[in-house]
Amino acid sequence: MALLTIFFCIILLVLLVSWAKVNPFLAFLIVSIAVGLLLGIPLGKVTASVQNGLGDTLKSITIIICLGAMLGKLVAESGAAQKIADVLVNAFGVKHIQWALLIVGFIIGIPLFYNTGFVLVVPLIFSVTYKYKLPAVYIGLPMLAALSVTHGFLPPHPSPSALVLIFHADMGKTLFYGLLVAIPAVILAGPVFAQTLKKIPSTPLETFIAKEIPADQLPGSGKSFLTALLPVILLMATTLYLNIDKSSGSTHKFIAFIGDAPIVMLISIMVGTYTLGLSQGKTMKQLGEIYGDAVKDISLILLIIAGSGAFKQVLTDSGVSTQISNALQTLNLQPLVLGWLIAAIIRISLGSATVAGLTAAGIVSSMVLRDHSINPNLMVLSIGAGSLAFSHVNDGGFWLFKEYFNLSIKDTIKSWSAMETIVSVVGLLGVLVLNQVV
């Protein structure tokens, strides 16, 4: 009954947005309240659940998305994105630009949270799209597939790192196995699958469309790459330091502070203000207008993501994930497949990869710790793969992709949702293969 209710409400959400043309944020609020009541949340607590979901979601990503949009707009307007695109195309050629973007996406994705990485790579994707008249989805999906895989499979991302601790796995081995699984998953879900998406119409957000700037007026290659990748550099450097220095002194605390994602983004925008702004002859007034326009352009996206957070919170508070998980535990399946399946169904039901991964881990952890024939490192990856399955309308990542690339829900499902599912299935297959040899 719970699954039927969720299915009905998801269909209602799709119809409200696509057929009735209701604003997605309003549609999320309507459906969130409806599903909460249908799943038995007391009348007086439904609104509180919605508000908690909105607040928790915005609390965690507002600073990152806003500052990331500012940095992205600056990278586009200053010509840095154009310069980076030129360097990549010269190195790989237009024919192989997808592979260049995939590699950059994978490198960026290892230290960065998905939302942060997304808003950083979008200007680069759009710059290549407009400069070389290439299909946006075809060019962008491989890069985003790389970001998604690193988010779900590889420490130090929150879910994989937490799963390592839950299963008493080895962080180094999990990362090594994760890389082995991630490479084929990214290739198949990225450049290979994207070959089928060339005809999907997409007109990306105009905020990242920069005017063509003469080559002699572009910022230098070093300055462009440094500013665009500064968040990555800071996060990688601070993470490396914190993993080496296990002390609790003032230096350790300071490095941990500047390595926090919002602080990293704030430092990056301050540096960018000089390197791509003031040093390029722009005034603070001009930069203020660039930053203001960037925030205006992503304000609706923030609300939509917040709405998806409200929907997820209502489903979580109703206890439906526990009901689904208990029912699945009665199935007689190989443990790695069972962990993947539980995570996948919770992911499809609730939308959050992190919630799906941690919930599934809580269910199978006693089995893994009790049965020493189950490789804990591979269970981390199996659940991580399951937590990425079929992202759709209850996932904030789905709406980020849809709104930034300005797609219909149908085309978003054909591209984004299908890509996530390929990553998930290939990830499981890779884990099962590794299970035979390690």
From TrEMBL:
GO CC annotation terms, alphabetical: plasma membrane
Pfam families, per the entry: GntP_permease
Topological relation to the membrane, as annotated: Multi-pass membrane protein
GO MF annotation list: gluconate transmembrane transporter activity
InterPro entries membership: Glcn_transporter (IPR003474)
Keywords: Cell membrane, Membrane, Transmembrane, Transmembrane helix, Transport
Subcellular location: Cell membrane
Record's keyword annotation contains Membrane: yes
NCBIfam families: gntP (TIGR00791)
Family: Belongs to the GntP permease family.
Protein name: High-affinity gluconate transporter
Organism from which the protein derives: Mucilaginibacter gotjawali
